[in-house]
Amino acid sequence: MARQDNGIIDLSLPISEIEKALYNYAHSPEQGLEALHLALLSFQKNTQVSISYADYHHRLSSFISAIEHLLVSGSPYVSRYHKAFFSSADALVQVAIACQLGGGRSEQLYYLLSIERSCWQEVVSVLNKETVLPSYVNYLARLGASQSESISVDAYLMDLARVGQVSFDLDTVNDGNVNGLFRLVSAQSLEWLQMKYPQLQWQVASVNEDMSLRTLCELSFLPIFQHSSMRRDARYRLLGEYEKTFERLFYQPFNRLFASDDCIFESPDRLVPIPHDCSQFKLDDNAKYFPLRHGGIFYIGSCLPEQRYSEMAYLSRLGRDFLSCFLYELDTSFGCFVFDREECLGTYAVTEHQLRRHEALLLFRVTAGIEAEVVLTACLLTSVDVAFCLLPQCIDQVLVVRQGGQYFAVPYTAIRDVEGVCSIMSTPRAWVKNVWLSRVNRPLIEPWLFRSDRLPTTSIGSGKDKSLGFSKNGYYFGKVCGRMFWVDAELVLAILPYQPPFSAVYIDNDKFSWKSFIIHEGHCFDKVLSRDFVSDGGGSAGGKGGFSMILGGMGESIVLPFEFCDWGASLPNAHYVREFASFLELFCCSDEKRHLMSLQEDAVMIDKKNFLSFVAGLSASLSLV
User: Fold this and answer.
1) Into how many domains does the chain fold?
2) Where does the source fall among the domains of life (predicted)?
3) What are the pLDDT digits (tens) for 339-348?
4) 544 located within any domain
């Protein structure tokens, strides 16, 4: 601030900034409070020396602290606070100006700073509230055609972005008029939003705070875990607080799922997700029960403890595991794989007397009561080049792993500690136990060692996964390997720049085949049609660009490589291929290459009625790459 010749400090600018910030608080609470905080700090700096009255400095410091408290709490708008801030700011400004004029005028205004005044009582009440993290609420706001005529969607998005995290779901467009739904996550109250945006039809999306907290963790833990720019110590503290909070709220020891203490438990103290609705099942006193993570989801597994090849059963689905785990990453004769340390007994040096033959098996003696089958080959490989068997005399060290109630000894040449988050699959697969994600989004494969293709029979839900997208209508269309496809928008989970899939080798009926998969936002999709499946119809499959469109619904998913992509509100009048009983109608074979038929053929239509048959037909007819 410039000092005038008469020695009086010019306070007009900070006073003006305070007034503007107080006005802005009613329209953009966070921006208003931030501006008010800066203006008060400037006002404090300019009056610190010229005013000696102690109560003035106490009140101004309290005012600044109250603003900081609200900023930490998410900047909620509270009308009574707003009125109190106006009165408090007016009192400070009057006293400051009077002190500049001198002649005892300021003393006449000291009553404005009395702690008994209601405005200062409100400031003190803000300070006395316990500092908490922002309390965010999920809101829905319906935009009708009449409202979109007066204010555009873009204008609403810009305005709502000032008060929270906002997105818009388009429903229909008729003659330029837009119908849709805004989704807003904000610390502001429903009353404030209704007053500020009366044209929109507001409602609270969820009143179940525990569920919204659980969803918040599921959606945010992986992005924080893979955050590359956050300082390491800050990131570890944040992840640590997440883990402690959500383990306390949404996890419990495995044995608490059972009313009886007489059952045989494996890993009874292991933390598993608290199920939303744990289906009832009959307990067998002769069975052994254990937690089992498959496809990113925890289940209750059981088997007969005394039988080496007892059939394993999935009894009940518990829920998704979304927290990070420490893993052992092994270099083996059949590739590089990981195993959850919670499911490992440890590493062991191998001596000759610890190995014995039992029929076709090689067994490793861990303790007096535990023998582990030595894994010499695996059905899942990282490449064909490393698929060879170890001779027993070459085994120096093993990691003992527990799967399906049985023990396995995995020989390795190197071992590392890594941390990962388990990706989730629409349904668990027989070819892999889990696909983990590292901090740099590198897939880490956890293979099945247990010899069983049996999958869970418990329902894991149907329909679309809402965590990957919102409801849409209309149709997406474009070329897939040279042929036109039209897809019901409700089936589209995501449209991404083209993602080259990861690959693993899977031995099926003594034949090597490739298993392709991609990772998106913590989800693993393993039914992928690659654009390397080149069309003879002149498509640009081999070129750059294009899109990976993830389709999902009814417990299934598939990824298609679109050469281009667009959206339409309705289907044009034409004839479409809708039946997929035999993909010979869609694919031709020549020189051992399969490709889509010529561009002049009818377009392919995929909707909810034929989606499952499309996925089944494509999976059965093609070796997906």
Assistant:
1) 4
2) Bacteria
3) 999 999 999 9
4) yes
